[in-house]
């Protein structure tokens, strides 16, 4: 009987071990599933992710937002980039949940169907309590305006990333912009506002801000305590070349969120004239800690004044054109809209239309 009891206890021990092993396997599978599922929630609607490390090394990731009311802008920008390079571009097209299917339809039912892309959902809940309502430029409060703050949360497998505003056209080879050198310890490169074209052109852009004074309210103690001279040259974050490793190491996103929340509490930014809400936190966080982009890769202010035009020769030399300001090239009045329209991709759904007298 003792032998029988020993055999029985051995059998029970084996069964317990098998059950424990089974539970361990189920737990591991559950963890792996959750990780994979979290990834699909973060990058909802994305294409197949099965790429080899070699493929990813050769890819140039370009992040661009496609907002509901101006989706045609993103599509024109994408078309201009894709048409002017032999490089392997991976477009991260970022939208809010209710626009994702429309973004996919526009790409897949137009000449853009050949591009390599992922559609990324941006959850505006991350901005809750961080944005101060501002009636002066309500379009600057759109959630997608802050996507540039959260690049590492959207892009995981790339070391270097290009972010572009949607109201740009690229005339050069995007590989050149991607090859911008970032100094050691710098998380990003921008265009200095002191690197703008000739002073003759600038003087005609009345009200243009190119110093920190135009973005930060120097009457506030919090701003004064930064010790940044109000005459310091600002930069424009509509074109960014970013190093994701440095960005994460320096906790740039957390720093930007801190300065968003401080603005909600103390109203620190001069948003009446400057780019305001998205630019100001970046000016503080990146002060003295950014590399510069070749000025020809960010010729901007084309949307500043419908009565101000650049010379045709100058525009031909430009590698990237940016219609920042109120006067967008798909609307009227605007300038140099012929350059933008040459890259326009008609909306297959017929929703987005050009608002020009001759259209």
UniProtKB/TrEMBL annotation:
Predominant subcellular localization, coarse grouping: membrane
Any GO CC annotation of this UniProt entry: membrane
Annotated InterPro entries: Glyco_trans_8, Glycosyltrans_8_dom-fam, Nucleotide-diphossugar_trans
Location within or outside the cell: Membrane
Membrane topology: Single-pass type II membrane protein
Pfam families attached to this UniProt entry: Glyco_transf_8 (PF01501)
Stretches of the chain forming a coiled coil according to its record: none
UniProt xrefs under SUPFAM superfamilies: Nucleotide-diphospho-sugar transferases
Keyword Transferase: yes
Species whose genome carries this gene: Monodon monoceros (Narwhal)
Record keywords, A-Z: Glycoprotein, Glycosyltransferase, Membrane, Signal-anchor, Transferase, Transmembrane, Transmembrane helix
Full protein name: Glycosyltransferase 8 domain-containing protein 2
Transmembrane region(s): 12-33
Transmembrane helix listed as a keyword: yes
GO molecular function, one term: UDP-glycosyltransferase activity
Family according to the record: Belongs to the glycosyltransferase 8 family.
């Amino acid at each position: 009987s003792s032998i029988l009891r020993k055999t029985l206890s051995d059998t029970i021990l084996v069964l317990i071990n098998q059950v424990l092993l089974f539970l361990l396997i189920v737990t591991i599978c559950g963890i792996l599933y959750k990780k994979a599922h979290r990834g699909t929630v973060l990058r909802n609607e994305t294409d197949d992710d099965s790429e080899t490390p070699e493929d990813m090394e050769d890819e140039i990731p370009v992040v661009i937002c496609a907002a509901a009311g101006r989706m045609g802008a993103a599509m024109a920008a994408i078309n201009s980039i894709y048409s002017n390079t032999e490089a392997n571009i991976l477009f991260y097209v970022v939208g809010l949940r209710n626009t994702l299917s429309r973004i996919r339809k526009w790409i897949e039912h137009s000449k853009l169907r050949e591009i390599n892309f992922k559609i990324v959902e941006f959850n505006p809940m991350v901005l809750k309590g961080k944005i101060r309502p501002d009636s002066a430029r309500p379009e600057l409060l759109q959630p997608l305006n802050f996507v540039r703050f959260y690049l590492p949360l959207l892009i995981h497998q790339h070391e270097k990333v290009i972010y572009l505003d949607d109201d740009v056209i690229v005339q050069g080879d995007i590989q050149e912009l991607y090859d911008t050198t970032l100094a050691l310890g710098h998380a990003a490169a921008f265009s200095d506002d002191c690197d703008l074209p000739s002073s003759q052109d600038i003087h005609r852009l009345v009200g243009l801000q190119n110093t920190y004074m135009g973005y930060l309210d120097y009457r506030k103690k919090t701003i004064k305590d930064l010790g940044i001279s109000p005459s310091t040259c600002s930069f424009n974050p509509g074109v960014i070349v970013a190093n994701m490793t440095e960005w994460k190491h320096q906790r740039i996103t957390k720093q930007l969120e801190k300065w968003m929340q401080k603005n909600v509490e103390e109203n620190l930014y001069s948003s009446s004239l400057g780019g305001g809400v998205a630019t100001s936190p970046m000016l503080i966080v990146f002060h003295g800690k950014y590399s510069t982009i070749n000025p020809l890769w960010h010729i901007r202010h084309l949307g500043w004044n419908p009565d101000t035009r650049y010379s045709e020769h100058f525009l031909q030399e430009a590698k990237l054109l940016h219609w920042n300001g109120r006067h967008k090239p798909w609307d009227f009045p605007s300038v140099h809209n012929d350059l933008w329209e040459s890259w326009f991709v008609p909306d297959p759904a017929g929703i987005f239309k050009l608002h020009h007298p001759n259209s």
